[in-house]
Design a protein that fits this description.
Elements: H1 3-32, E1 37-40, E2 43-48, H2 50-78, H3 99-116, H4 127-140, H5 142-153, H6 157-164, H7 169-195
Antiparallel strand pairs: 1-2
Helix pairs in contact: 1-2, 2-3, 2-4, 2-7, 3-4, 3-5, 4-7, 5-6
Length: 196
């Protein structure tokens, strides 16, 4: 075995370790978002930060690692860890009125990651692409969210949109902007860590 082969394996192992660490970090950050959960009187959907961290996972890590980070977060909640809004856990949360939003987090990371692309060393991601990825990633959270909210509450479409989307537009616009700016500043560093 040559020294070059050894060096190649060490480099691959290091990159795999960095990728795994970043995936775990963003799963933990998404879980930490549960500590800021503000219930509203007129809707079962609280104000949360998990959607921002799920979006950021995709923007910074790409669809595979970003999706894996959110998948790990959802798995932790499904087995009972209190990582969902209101410090709740358990598979039953996926069946309640806000369960569709949990599925939307995974869609958010995947779609944002697909549009933004995985970070690559020496490749600059256009800012317009990050903005598009951020907007699409945040909006896609609401597709399964509103569908399940409507079904569980037996509400009309206007009612479901009125309690599951409209109250959150301004806040989610701010969270999207924060995620896009953060990704724009950190993608080079993440690319260097993953490919270095």
């Amino acid at each position: 075995m040559t020294r070059e082969t050894d060096g190649g394996r060490v480099g691959e192992n290091r990159r795999a370790l960095v990728r795994t660490s970043l995936t775990a970090l963003f799963a933990a950050l998404t879980a930490a978002g549960t500590f800021i959960s503000i219930p509203l009187l007129f809707t079962p959907v609280p104000i949360v930060l998990q959607n921002m961290f799920a979006l950021l996972s995709g923007l910074l890590l790409g669809p595979v690692s970003g999706g894996a980070a959110v998948g790990l977060y959802l798995l932790a909640g499904a087995i009972g860890l209190p990582v969902f809004a209101g410090a709740r856990g358990g598979f039953v949360q996926f069946l309640g009125p806000t369960g569709g939003f949990l599925a939307g987090y995974l869609l958010s990371a995947l779609l944002a990651g697909l549009i933004a692309g995985a970070p690559r060393a020496g490749v600059e991601t256009p800012y317009w692409r990050l903005v598009l990825a951020g907007l699409a990633g945040m909006l896609v959270v609401y597709v399964p969210g509103i569908i399940q909210l409507k079904a569980v509450l037996r509400a009309s479409w206007p009612e479901a949109v009125g309690v599951g989307f409209l109250p959150f537009i301004a806040g989610d616009a701010v969270k999207t902007a924060i995620a896009v700016v953060t990704a724009g500043r950190l993608r080079k560093s993440v690319a260097k860590a993953l490919n270095g």
